[in-house]
Amino acid sequence: MLFVEFSKFVIIVLMNKISELLKTTADDRAIYVFPSEAAAVFWRKSYLDITGKKAVRNDRFLSWDSFKEKITLHDKKDKPVNSVLRRIFTADIIEKNAKKPFLYKIIPSLYADAAGGFADSICRILPEIESLQALINKNKHFLEPGLVDDISEIYERYKDFLDVNSLFEPSWQLPEVEASKLPHYIIAPNLIDDFKEFDKLLSNYGFNLFYPQVDSRLSELRVFENSVIEANAVVTEIKALLKSGTNASSITVTCADDTLARLILSEAKLDDVPISYRKGKSLSEYPAGRLPSLLSECRQSGYSIESLKNLLLFKAFLWKEADLAADLISFGILNRCLKNTSDYGSGDVWKTRLKSAGKIELLKFYEKLKTRIGDLCSCSSFSQLSEKFQVFISTFLITDSSLWDSECERVFQRTREVLSSLCEAEKSISGIEIKNPLALWIKLLGEKIYVKQAEKGGIDLYPYRVSALIEPEVHFVCGLSNSASRAVSLPFAFLSEQQRSSLGISEQNMSDDFIFLYNLSGKDIRFSCSTETPSGAALPPAVFVKDEAVRNINYAHQSEDPFFNEPVLKENIWWQSADSGVVAENFFNITNIQKKGFEYAEKTFFITKEFDATEKVFPGNFKESLLYDKLADEGKIRISASALNKWESCPFSFYATYLLSLFEDEYILKVDDPFTEGDILHEIMFHFFNSLKKEKRAFRAFGKTNEYLQLLEDSANIIFIKWEKSCNYFYGPAWDSFKRKAFNYIADFLKAETETFDGYFPEYLEQWFSFELEEGQVKVVGKIDRISSNENGAVIVDYKRSKTKPGIAKFVKFDDDGNILSPQEGYQIPVYILLAEQNNIKVQSTSYYSFRDGKHMIVSGEKGVLNKIENAEELLCDKTLEEIKLMADSCRKGDFIPPVRCDGCRLRSVCRKRFNVRWAV
After folding, report:
1. From CA 468, how far away is CA 209, in angstroms rounded?
2. Which residue in 207, 437, 497, 708 is deepest, having the highest Cβ count within 10 Å?
3. 427 vs 85, 381, 383, CA distance in Å?
4. What is the pLDDT of residues 492-502, one digit of tens each?
């Protein structure tokens, strides 16, 4: 080993690996400093095996950041500023600038009142602002004057903030170093971004610098066709290593491409390969770290149904009154509690509608929740926020930590620690005003990084750079394209490239340094990259190309694994063999998740069922079953037009909907609802025509347009007031919009009705009709919107909110043998005709009325579309009677087998007729 004296540093230059350094310098007092925490932890664990010692102090193996905190001291009365204090200062300066602007370039005056989006930029400036100010003082012309003034203003205010509160900015000056007689070894300082700043400081204390000697020849870089193939190759090789007996803890994966890392994790999950991603996420990205932001969103959104759903149905927390929370959301959906709004005059829509519905318990829960959230959002200090947050937790959450998921509990405690740090910071500083403590807490939760605890005995997957210098048995370094492996240190990153260039500042490129050190990071190094990545085309690093260490892998064609060449091949073989006694455990080379799926299949849908309504007619006499009672009315099968349409499209869907009452729960509340709009329009028509009927007046609007328009508007106002009193109207602006449309619809209806059916008397309104068929023992029922009549007969009108004019082919179409087919338009019109005629009503014509188009669409009668084919109405009614009898016979037998092919429906999870699993044949 050769030592070279340089600037009072001892530089170790001829030692190959860190393990040799630890053997040679085995001293119970020595301190080893690494660029990253991952490297420090790795060598702390390895030190015992290398030296044979039984224990080692944790503080002897430090990351560079931990080392700086340990050795740097300042005047005892001063404390180092941290990210929390910088955030508090930034929030304060933004608030003061909003009241009386003094920043004009960094925060344009136009956005001074809502400048929260500029907080990140100001925070990034603070650690380097003194150095930047020094450069500005030397040359004020390299930046535009407005920006120079803003930077100087922030610098002076920040300096005052530090002085007043006895703080110092660690990055502004090199603090004094506590003299230490302990030997220190700083390993690979060329990988440390800010090491040059400490060069002069550390040179006075004789610290040892260790630069591991890199090999002259790089290991091979395998280049795959794309990232999917690369991920598959990495996991396949790991599986082979584990199968051969290699311990999982001796394998490490480093990935330079985050997308590739996700692909590797997905591949590993398929085979239960234990890989843990050692990349931290901000606390706010974890479910248990989102509670503060969820609470804030409730207040900001006016307690919208979506924000309350996100809060109360969130499974990361254990709610004391979980049933009440779920009931409140169900109530909000059913009663259209979209959000609270003051501009519409409804105030608290939740409170109003809960009161109206008599839901006292839900009302108390909602008011308590709203009060507690309001308390949190209106806090004026962090200490008050901490107190109110504790009240919220004790009021609404189960606090027994043994009932929580362990990882959720740890993350939740970290969020509270961040709040505690804000409280401590608040106590130690003065002259600062915090307008919104909750918002600042949420902001910090988005910055604080938390790394999930690794599974014991698993394989660690690290982001690039973090794992440099570790030496596992096998080290996969993947995704190592030229762009992904780029490692640079960039001073004044908040400045533009042109501004940095004018300062003469260039980036420090450490890309090759990292690659050469990764070449030492393990006994078996496996470099790889892909030419096609999710981010686009990629190239291998130039240093590998220069060293002729690149090998292209045509993995897809060379692989002997048939699963890779044909992803469904293995599954097809298994399905074909399922009946021959092949069991999943003995099947060759399938993934663990496939095994679990196959085992589930063997125990469930491969076992013959006692009865399957999608395949067989109900056994025995279906008339004796309890389900038959839902169809029968005094022994007769009850059939309506909608039931016939449902049965025609799919008998099983009819069975599930009408007999089993299966419906899909909707947890989405829209601003408006076309079905409700249709109901209201129907009610307006009923009220208007019913008032005419009570006065025994026919509809005679010709020459009386204004009078009839006023009558229609009066009916509309009455119906809208009724809905508003029932508290089930839409969100304010949507309700107003619909009301405006409805009054326009009324004017159009008056014109269309006058042109088409003027002089007709409203005989039946929203009336139920029925008739019986002895053949088939059927009772046909239906509710007709309106039947009006004159001396020539009756007209049937069915209201539609929106309707496209149907052609004759929608009603009458023939097959190749001349037989009439089922109407694509459905059976509503022919069923209505049959109902009217069977009740001795002479039908003159039938019509759909479309509110959207403002037109009557005549179906039958003199001007109807059915007139285009001779006897079309008769043929259609005969076909309808035929289908009614067939449906009755099918229901009586218990035959609800779905068609061979269908378009799919909401019952796919029950039926699985179209979206099911089939085996290859």
Report:
1. 17
2. 437
3. 11, 10, 9
4. 766 777 777 76
